[in-house]
TrEMBL record:
Key words of the record: Transferase
A Pfam family of this chain: GST_C_3
Protein name in UniProt: glutathione transferase
Organism: Mesorhabditis belari
Keyword hit for DNA-binding: no
Length: 206
């Protein structure tokens, strides 16, 4: 199989799939498109957006569909139907959270101007963080395995933990009140394939 992943020159919604390929030890072509070049590529992408995964010439859009496809193919989607459903739910939950923090996130990164970033951190980010990361912290305690689903890493862990990397670049102490989630991130980042990828990948803001 020949895999090509198209995404912007950042981590964002493309990174969980990159990490899944690294976990699986599977080769893929990491096609990074600069924002200035995106208009030249948009028409060739299904739904006019990225990420897009090309598999033997077939292009698959939508970040969740792509990551789920790769996770299922290589054994990182959950070991039982119930675990698979929980992984799906946790990624859906991540997207809910992401929508809630959008004004802060894109303003802090300089992509939008929705007001003062510090004020948005307090009024937009913190309520969403407390709700969603509180839930994650409670789930990890209840699980007792160190992972959000089952007893090993799944694609759901990757969506949440890589996002934490971006927020911690902006606010290093953003998640200190959620020790179980912080421990999950350390655990995921220490997996040998992930550790090697983090050390070698381009250092980007998002």
């Amino acid at each position: 199989m020949v895999y090509k992943l198209y995404y912007f020159a950042g981590r964002g919604f493309g990174e969980p799939t990159r990490m899944l390929f690294k976990l699986a030890g599977e080769e893929f072509e990491d096609v990074r498109i600069e924002s200035a070049d995106w208009p030249n590529h948009k028409a060739s992408m299904p739904m006019g957006q990225m990420p897009v995964l090309e598999v033997n010439g077939v292009k698959i859009p939508q970040s969740s569909a792509i990551a789920r496809y790769v996770a299922r193919k290589f054994g990182f989607a959950g070991k039982t139907p119930e675990d698979m459903a929980w992984a799906d739910a946790l990624v859906d939950g991540f997207k809910d959270y992401y929508k809630e923090i959008t004004d802060y996130y894109y303003t802090a990164l300089g992509f939008l101007n929705k007001g003062d970033a510090e004020e948005l951190y307090k009024t937009v980010f913190l309520p969403a963080r407390d709700k969603h990361f509180g839930m994650l912290n409670d789930r990890l305690k209840a699980q007792g395995t160190g992972f959000l689903v089952g007893d090993s890493v799944t694609w759901a862990d990757l969506f949440w933990t890589d996002h934490m990397t971006t927020i911690e670049k902006l606010k290093p102490d953003a998640f200190t009140g959620f020790p179980e989630v912080v421990a999950l991130k350390k655990r995921v980042d220490a997996i040998p394939q992930i550790k090697a990828w983090i050390e070698s990948r381009p250092d980007t803001r998002f």
